[in-house]
Specification:
- By secondary structure, the protein is mainly beta.
- It has a single domain, classed as hypothetical protein yedk fold (Alpha-Beta Complex), CATH 3.90.1680.10.
- It is 10% helix and 41% strand.
- The protein contains three helices and 15 strands.
- Strands 2, 3, 6, 7, 10, 11, 12 and 13 form an eight-stranded mixed beta sheet that branches. The protein has a five-stranded antiparallel beta sheet with strand order 1-8-9-14-15, with no helix packed on it. It has a two-stranded antiparallel sheet with strand order 4-5.
- Strand 10 and strand 11 form a beta hairpin.
- The longest helix has 8 residues.
- It is globular, with a radius of gyration of 16 Å.
Length: 195
């Protein structure tokens, strides 16, 4: 589950990274939380939407969508072929249980810079697609957001591609390694995603 993330890149950097025609609107927040407005990129360009779908069956917003069951869930199935988006980020946060203590980890690709989560939008709100974790971060949490490789981002966004053609992109991050910084900062480790 991904319940917080950050986007520390500046607007011009995001415009260049995601090949936008102009600098996108940005939110000034150290951590983006459920129900916050945040930047998404879709075929129409970049815009701010609220994080988390409103649903009748839960009082809390639906902030994550499991990749393994997207095509089976009535909340997500109608969005798969026409409402895919990228969610720009520079890191995400996950909490590791240590007995009764929860330890916050900031997780990001070792190369740094902005990257994108796979997302879905209903036009007013968005959700982040999650998958099983790579072995290198499985000790922190049993889910991770789908981080798309840069070359996969356009395939995910291109709505000419039906969902069945891009479903294989929804897997643990395979490009390089992730760095997990645990708070309080007791140790920094580079984690190879393949174990």
């Amino acid at each position: 589950m991904c319940s917080r993330y950050e986007l520390s890149a500046k607007s011009p950097e995001i415009a260049k990274r995601f090949q936008l025609d102009s600098s996108p609107p940005m939110v000034n927040a150290a951590e983006i939380r459920p129900s916050d407005q945040a930047l998404i990129v879709d075929e129409a360009g970049a815009r701010l939407l609220r994080w988390g779908f409103q649903v009748s069956w839960d009082k809390k917003p639906v902030i994550n969508a499991r990749a393994e069951s997207l095509a089976e869930k009535k909340t997500f199935k109608p969005l798969l072929d026409g409402n895919r988006c990228l969610v720009p980020a520079s890191a995400y946060f996950e909490w590791r249980r240590d007995g009764k203590v929860r330890r916050k980890n900031r997780i990001a690709p070792v190369a740094g810079g902005a990257f994108a989560f796979a997302g879905l939008t209903d036009g007013e709100r968005f959700t982040i697609v999650t998958c099983l974790p790579s072995p290198g971060i499985a000790h922190i949490h049993n889910r991770m957001p789908v981080i798309l490789a840069a070359q996969a981002e356009q395939h995910w966004l291109d709505l000419v591609n039906p969902y069945v053609a891009v479903a294989g992109l929804l897997r643990p991050y395979e490009q390089n390694v992730l760095v997990a910084n645990e708070e309080p900062p007791s140790e920094v480790r580079q984690l190879n995603l393949f174990g």
